[in-house]
């Protein structure tokens, strides 16, 4: 991969921040956008902005075609069987809420079990807490090993015949752990439970095949994979989506409406009430075009190389604690002894290095790691090895600075 | 040396309060009120206890976890408000909040060491860290008012 030429496609990367060259290492929060994605959205607004699935005029037809073409790109990208299985949402959070409220509320009964992991993002945790409270279901957790991985034998021992829903993140947004979701899905199915996969941190970085995983539901966001914010995807097996009542009702999702009741449109529109984020969907389509032009396997391989290097450099530094397993997706969470993550982040920012500090929307995981928060550097394929070195230098200088002023 | 500008934020007096917090602890008793406040975006936590007598803050203690800015600010706040009439405390918290936002503020009031946090105004992302303890004081005073009204 020619990183320097790739970087030319991302205008935002070519700037100075606080007098230094920007080193953007907050990709797990949101990725940057290539010119092709930005231009695709500008074209929509400048040339054919119209609502979809309504008018019969030329612009409306063009907008509808492009909007549905993007859906087909998404279908192909995650290897779903049918476009009916691709529901546009506002992002992973809405996708997971749709599963919890649309499927969970209708199918969970008192005493049923939902099993998740301690490393879930709040988006794959709080909806289940809420649905458990409302239905009387029990929310349980797979035990997590000290290195932040799951042990399949313990997974097997946790899932019972009372388990109705298993929901697991494919990649931890804090630890970078890659969870064996395919194997977990098999165990879940052996007990008659459905398997939900939070793909927010995996879909941008590796090839996803929902049929191979045998996931019943799969959720991800556009903005972490070069697309705009406000667009995401809920994948669901057609049979499950057919049986799901819409959580939101209104425009676009109907078949026929009378004074007292209404019937629903076919999938996928049944689950997409109101005017959607048309520019966002088309932009996500352009993002997928870009990712495919580089190749997901190459992206994954290159990012593993980056995170391996970062892990190696940081875990060999005195006074630096790195969290999570040795083999990981493209991010590294760490702490510097005696320096709070926010102070680390401010120090790095003054060197132009953007990282995330905080609990990363994973407070229960923080308590497992016995810390309040961490610093997280997360990579994408446009990051270079030089930037990992800049990070390492920044951390070294931060340690010196706070050692010095005390 | 790198991080030249950073010295403007992390002044030695701030780091001193961070490493050697003043008035750490909790107050219990009939004139005491204790409140908790979180900064949910970052996970910083603060607990403030006030002992109020004759419309004065006669004692104040804090506990918490968080960054150098939020914790030092809490420590400096306790020194600044201890012994002051409640009315003056309100003025100080307002004044402090204006200062860290870089707004014009009343220089006549004595913020003590907390004055050193004026550099925060150059770091908008950190203003919430600096104001957390001061907001908690306001919350504690509201709680005390409520309790008084109920009696």
TrEMBL record, chain A:
Q: Does the keyword rRNA processing apply?
A: no
Q: Which reaction does it catalyse?
A: (sulfur carrier)-H + L-cysteine = (sulfur carrier)-SH + L-alanine
Which residues span the membrane? none
Q: What cofactor requirement does the entry state?
A: pyridoxal 5'-phosphate
Q: What class of enzyme is it?
A: transferase
Q: Where is the Aminotransferase class V domain?
A: 23-391
Gene3D superfamilies from the UniProt entry: Aspartate Aminotransferase, domain 1 (3.90.1150.10), Type I PLP-dependent aspartate aminotransferase-like (Major domain) (3.40.640.10)
Any one GO molecular-function label of the UniProt entry: transaminase activity
Task: List UniProt keywords, sorted A-Z.
Answer: Aminotransferase, Pyridoxal phosphate, Transferase
Q: Return the EC number.
A: 2.8.1.7
- Pfam families attached to this UniProt entry: Aminotran_5 (PF00266)
Among InterPro entries, the record links this protein to: Aminotrans_V_dom, Cys_dSase_SufS, Cysteine_dSase, PyrdxlP-dep_Trfase, PyrdxlP-dep_Trfase_major, PyrdxlP-dep_Trfase_small
Please name the PANTHER family in this protein's record.
Answer: CYSTEINE DESULFURASE, CYSTEINE DESULFURASE 1, CHLOROPLASTIC
UniProt similarity note: Belongs to the class-V pyridoxal-phosphate-dependent aminotransferase family. Csd subfamily.
The protein here is known as cysteine desulfurase
- Native organism is Sporolactobacillus kofuensis
UniProtKB/TrEMBL annotation, chain B:
Q: Return the InterPro entries for the record.
A: NIF_FeS_clus_asmbl_NifU_N (IPR002871)
Entry's Gene3D superfamilies?
A: 3.90.1010.10
The NIF system FeS cluster assembly NifU N-terminal domain, residue ranges: 10-129
Official protein name in the record: Fe-S cluster assembly sulfur transfer protein SufU
- Point out the gene that encodes the protein: sufU
């Amino acid at each position: 991969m020619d990183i320097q030429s790739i970087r030319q496609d991302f205008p935002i990367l070519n700037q100075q921040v606080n007098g230094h060259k920007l080193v953007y290492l907050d990709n797990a929060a949101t990725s940057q956008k290539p010119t092709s994605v930005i231009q695709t959205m500008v074209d929509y607004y400048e040339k054919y902005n119209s609502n979809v699935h309504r008018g019969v005029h030329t612009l409306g037809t063009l907008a509808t075609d492009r909007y549905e073409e993007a859906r087909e790109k998404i279908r192909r990208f995650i290897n779903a069987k049918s476009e009916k299985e691709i529901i546009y949402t506002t992002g992973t959070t809405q996708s997971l809420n749709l599963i919890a409220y649309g499927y969970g509320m209708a199918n969970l009964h008192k005493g049923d079990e939902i099993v998740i992991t301690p490393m879930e993002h709040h988006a794959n945790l709080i909806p289940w807490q809420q649905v458990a409270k409302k239905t009387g279901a029990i929310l349980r957790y797979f035990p997590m090993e000290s290195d932040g991985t799951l042990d399949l034998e313990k997974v097997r021992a946790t899932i019972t015949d009372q388990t109705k829903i298993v929901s697991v993140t494919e990649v931890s947004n804090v630890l970078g752990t890659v969870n064996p979701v395919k194997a977990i899905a098999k165990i879940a199915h052996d007990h008659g439970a459905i398997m939900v996969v939070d793909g927010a941190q995996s879909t941008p970085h590796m090839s996803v095949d929902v049929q191979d995983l045998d996931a019943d539901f799969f959720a991800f966001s556009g903005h972490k994979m070069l697309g705009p914010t406000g667009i995401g995807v809920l994948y669901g097996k057609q049979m499950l989506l057919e049986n799901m009542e819409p959580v939101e009702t209104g425009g676009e999702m109907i078949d026929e409406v009378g004074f007292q009741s209404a019937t629903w449109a076919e999938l996928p529109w049944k689950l997409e009430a109101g005017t959607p984020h048309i520019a966002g969907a088309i932009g996500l389509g352009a993002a997928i075009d870009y990712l495919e032009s580089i190749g997901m396997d190459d992206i994954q391989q290159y990012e593993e190389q980056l995170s391996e290097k970062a892990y190696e450099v940081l875990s060999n530094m005195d006074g630096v604690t790195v969290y999570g397993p040795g083999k990981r997706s493209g991010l590294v969470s760490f702490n510097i002894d005696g320096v709070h993550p926010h102070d680390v982040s401010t120090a790095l920012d003054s060197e132009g290095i953007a990282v995330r500090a905080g609990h990363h929307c994973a407070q229960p995981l923080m308590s497992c790691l016995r810390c309040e928060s961490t610093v997280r550097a997360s990579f994408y394929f446009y990051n270079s090895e030089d930037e990992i070195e800049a990070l390492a230098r920044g951390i070294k200088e931060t340690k010196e600075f706070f050692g010095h002023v005390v | 040396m790198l991080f030249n500008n950073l010295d403007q934020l992390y002044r030695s007096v701030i780091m001193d309060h961070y490493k050697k917090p003043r008035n750490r602890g909790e107050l219990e008793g009939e004139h005491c009120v204790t409140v908790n406040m979180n900064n949910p975006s970052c996970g910083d936590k603060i607990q403030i206890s006030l002992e109020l007598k004759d419309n004065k803050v006669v004692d104040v203690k804090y506990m918490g976890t968080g960054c150098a800015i939020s914790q030092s600010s809490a420590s400096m706040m306790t020194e600044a408000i201890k012994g002051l009439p409640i009315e003056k405390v309100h003025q100080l918290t307002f004044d402090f909040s204006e200062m860290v936002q870089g707004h014009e503020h009343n220089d006549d009031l004595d913020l003590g060491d907390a004055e050193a946090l004026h550099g925060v105004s150059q770091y908008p992302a950190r203003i919430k860290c600096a104001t957390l303890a001061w907001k908690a004081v306001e919350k504690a005073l509201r709680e005390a008012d409520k309790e008084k009204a109920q009696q």
